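Re: that chain you flagged

S.,

Sorry for the slow reply, it's been a week of failed gels. I finally had a moment to sit down with the sequence you sent. For the record, here it is as I used it:
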Amino acid sequence: MNRQNHFSILLKTLLFTSILMFGGCRQSNNNAPKKIAVVISTMNNPWFVVLGESAAERAKELGYETTIFDSQNNTAKEAEHFENLIAAGFSAILFNPTDADGSVSNVNRAKQAGIPTFCMDRDVNSLNGPVTQIISDSFSGCVELGEYFVRQLDKKGKYVELLGLVGDNNTWNRSKGFHSVVDHYPGLVMVAQQSADFDRSKAMEVLESVMQSHP
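Prediction finished late last night. Pasting the structure tokens below so you have them in one place:
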């Protein structure tokens, strides 16, 4: 079983057990529709499409109505989604945040409205806001990636590092895991480090620009 499938199974099991415990109790006190919002940082990335659609599909299997919200890597757009879904009376939120710090206020706003939030794949810097935070071990994953990288380049060469969202903890955990290995090899030289926001189209643009300066 690969890591993506393992994470998907873990996410579904833990996340929806929590939803049934917390969201179900909330619904039993009123006759409101059982609705779950799935708020994704961006749907302009194959992984996040899988994440959002898988979460929504599993929620439907458990009897919930679901709506996917695309934040487009924009914290303002994300805040707008939270405002709308709170007003619409959703029972719970499955949340893939855009910013570890900037998204905390949205989680707290939902909590104050009595709507539990469950963070998936990314966390927010809050111990009290979300009910659960189920994330990948990005550091360890990129330690392995760094080891593979060193072998493939035979310990020498120039490289570019493309980062994800600078406000996401996963971005820096991945970078730290990678550099914890690669920085021990002086023959490997990083010529540029730039953000591409976990967006493949932007990554291509950034890399093309970097390669003009560092052929």
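What I noticed first: Residues 3-28 form the longest helix (26 residues).

Talk soon,
D.
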